[in-house]
Design brief:
Elements: H1 2-11, H2 20-44, H3 57-62, E1 68-69, E2 72-73, H4 75-88, H5 98-130, H6 135-153, H7 176-199, E3 206-209, H8 212-219, H9 225-231, E4 238-241, E5 244-247, E6 252-255, E7 261-262, E8 269-275, H10 280-296, E9 300-306, H11 328-341, H12 346-353, H13 362-373, H14 375-383, H15 385-405, E10 412-415, E11 418-421, H16 427-438
Parallel strand pairs: 8-9
Antiparallel strand pairs: 1-2, 3-11, 4-5, 5-6, 7-9, 8-10, 10-11
Helix pairs in contact: 2-4, 2-6, 4-5, 5-6, 5-7, 8-9, 9-15, 11-13, 11-14, 11-15, 13-14
Length: 443
């Protein structure tokens, strides 16, 4: 009888808490939780991840549509899954009954497959779709996936094939057939994640039709008399004379022949776009603006004003603004300088600046601008006081929109009384906005 008992003990899985691999898996999960937790906090507070400024791979990933699932930042459910798996490991103590052990392993297997499959999905997106990498995302995926594989490798399979999974039994271990079904359940969860991301794209663009009543709510946050005046006014972008556009009750009067534009300055309809060369969504918007400008031909003029979100040249941005790139001001100055010196060459410079997902280095942009203007010509253009004045005006318009629409998100588009803040998804998206807020249709 003693020999029979010894034989039974030899096939019984060892208490999980006594196994070293469990501690390694827990350490990996803690790291994954820390990375996902930071990303969740960043997403909720709409801030950049530490050490990931504008133009970085992290910023490109976190600002993409793939950073959300059904409108929720993916880091939030990821954190919940990591925490749940971590918690399940403490339900596998030596005092747990066989039924409790199987119940815990049910959750562990499903969660592990979800984590491993999600890691494969998100890394593939970064490699093939976004073509940028987030160090926090990769850390969470690598550690989470490693922990998940450790769990799946160490599943304590039942020694008796007829061990029940869903019924009470004194036998220990997980039946292999049941484990296969749990793996399929996990894969179904991964499929739900992927399908949800493909079919449901988070709408990050917000359009505010600004009226005096709507702006009253933000006037209390306006500091100066100028701020209060902006906050109490509607943008009401309209032509007051040929080639002359008024914004905010003539607080800003724009001569359309003196600012960068797409389309004709004589167009009967004009919108104003504020763009930062280092802003990921601004860079994505530029080709959309070009296509829409071509489609509407002489019906629509698009004013494209370079803006910087850096406190170095934007007095309305606090120095704690982590969204700003250190190159933002200099690139904006270069764009305005090229426009002022040679307007006919500006489209070439602008298309080069907006080409690709990331902005060029300042040294590269200077070299390209010098190729257009010459070294001496570029120095003279940058020294022109108009460049600094126009950049300040552009920043003031951004501030006025910020106060009126209660959003500083970029890019911004002013269409009559409406202010669009944040990224647009497509040419069709912008066409819809033009039709809705300016009654503009393709001929």
């Amino acid at each position: 009888m003693s020999e029979s008992k010894d034989s039974a003990d030899s096939v019984r899985p060892a208490p999980v808490s006594a196994l070293a691999w469990m501690n390694w898996a827990r350490v990996l999960l803690v790291i994954a939780m820390a990375a996902a937790g930071h990303l969740a906090w960043v997403s909720i507070h709409d801030g950049p991840a530490a050490g990931c400024g504008a133009g970085s791979g992290c910023n490109a990933v976190l600002q993409s549509r793939w950073a959300y699932w059904l409108g929720v930042p993916v880091s939030v459910p990821a954190l919940l899954v990591y925490v749940s798996l971590f918690g399940c490991t403490f339900l596998l103590g030596p005092k747990s009954s066989p039924d409790e052990q199987r119940g815990s392993w049910t959750a562990i297997i499903v969660l592990s497959v979800v984590i491993a499959g999600s890691a494969f999905w998100f890394v593939s997106l970064q490699v093939f779709v976004i073509q940028s990498f987030c160090k926090y995302c990769l850390t969470a995926h690598a550690c989470g996936c490693a922990a998940a594989l450790i769990f799946l490798w160490n599943i304590p399979y039942a020694s008796e094939p007829d061990t029940p999974m869903w019924q009470s039994s004194p036998r220990r271990g997980v039946p292999r057939r049941a484990a296969a079904w749990l793996v399929l359940m996990g894969l179904f969860g991964v499929a739900a994640l992927a399908v949800g991301q493909v079919l449901v794209q988070k709408q990050r663009n917000v359009v505010t039709v600004v009226t005096a009543a709507a702006t009253n709510r933000v006037s209390s946050s306006a500091g100066t008399a100028s701020d209060i005046a902006s906050a109490m006014a509607s943008p009401n972008a309209h032509l007051i004379a040929p080639r002359t556009l008024s914004l905010y009750s003539n607080q800003f009067v724009i001569n359309l022949g003196e600012v960068p534009m797409l389309g004709s300055p004589d167009a009967p309809h004009v919108i104003v776009c504020l763009l930062d060369y280092t802003c990921t969504h601004c860079r994505a918007l530029h080709p959309i603006l070009e296509q829409v400008g071509q489609q509407y031909s002489n019906q629509l003029g698009i004013v494209c004003l370079p803006v910087s979100l850096s406190a170095e040249c934007n007095p309305f941005i606090t120095k704690m603004n982590l969204h700003a790139s250190p190159d933002s001001c200099e690139l904006a100055r270069l764009g305005l300088a090229v426009w002022r010196a040679r307007p006919e060459a500006y489209p070439k410079f602008e298309n080069w600046m907006f080409d690709g997902p990331k902005p060029p280095e300042v040294s590269e942009a200077r070299e390209f601008a010098a190729g257009i203007l010459g070294q001496d010509g570029l120095k003279l253009a940058l020294a022109n006081p108009w460049v600094s004045r126009q950049l300040l005006i552009d920043c003031k318009i951004h501030r006025a929109n910020w106060l009126a629409a209660d959003s500083s998100a970029m890019p911004q588009i002013v269409m009559g009384d409406a202010v669009s803040s944040g990224p647009l998804n497509s040419v069709g998206h912008l066409q819809m906005l033009l039709n809705r807020y300016m009654a503009l249709t393709l001929r």
